[in-house]
Give the backbone structure.
Amino acid sequence: SRPGWFSRLRQGLSRTGSGIAQVFTGTRIDEALYEELEAALLMADTGVKAAAALLDDLKRRVKAAKATDPAQVKALLADVVADWLSPLQRPFEIGETTPTVIMVAGVNGAGKTTTIGKLTRHLAEGDCKVLLAAADTFRAAAREQLGVWADRNRVEIVAQEGGDPAAVSFDAVQAGRARGCDVVIADTAGRLPTQLHLMDELKKIKRVIGKAMDGAPHEVLLVVDGNTGQNALAQVQAFDAALQLTGLVVTKLDGTAKGGVLASIAAWQKETGREVPVYFIGVGEQLEDLQPFDAREFAQALLG
Ligand code: GDP
């Protein structure tokens, strides 16, 4: 049987997304079915381009398979979606370099701090020595919350009340080297209280981390909320332009998320040639609710 997180993912996606499963309950494969399917894909937040491309691909496969039953079309759609999303799938592996420095970005509320807590757990289970850097020095709550995750995972944290985010990151990387840590994870601000531009601040943090250690940060991850639909794609584009992302985490796919945004991220990557894998998906608020992204599982959950 499927693990609990899979059913949470399926429930989350089907609550709003799938309309998709309903499309295949009829007896005929006709233009009305494809129109309904297009509407369902758009409702699931795939965006117009990805919906059109998925449909084209599906129609080709339906023809080639000489399918006669909508249930066959549904199975073929699962293949189409899985193939479409598979370029986003890549295992998250920590390299040989110690410490490996991971910078994590994302707008407030996306699930950044929670994701760092879960990722720390994931790494600590693999016997990695992790150090957290509270580089969101603007919000006391952010620092406190990261502290809670550090305690829960029994790892150290570098924080400085009201300090400069880049300086905190610099100190953390140096501390990570001095203490023989395997991984340093820097939590960054998702919004600034000042007139300063967030992207400039994040670029500065990235630059200063590079000064603390050649080649760092080794990973620049963006956390996006799977509920935010096409806005999530806009965030990916904006943060990637500023920071050259190395990977994504899509959160809250257990909630009311529609999931189609992954198809639009895949479409963007196809179009631009950028490769930014989705390393993990968030399927709950607990420490174990961070799962490696698997295109086929995701396609199955999406189709209900
Ligand atoms: P940040 O502002 O980006 O650091 O966001 P937080 O980590 O504080 O998360 C914002 C809210 O989203 C919190 O209530 C988290 O518990 C919740 N959250 C984060 N990830 C997930 C997830 O995968 N599923 C669910 N259901 N909630 C999540």
Remarks:
- The radius of gyration is 21 Å.
- The chain is about 50% helix and 15% strand.
- The mean pLDDT is 92.
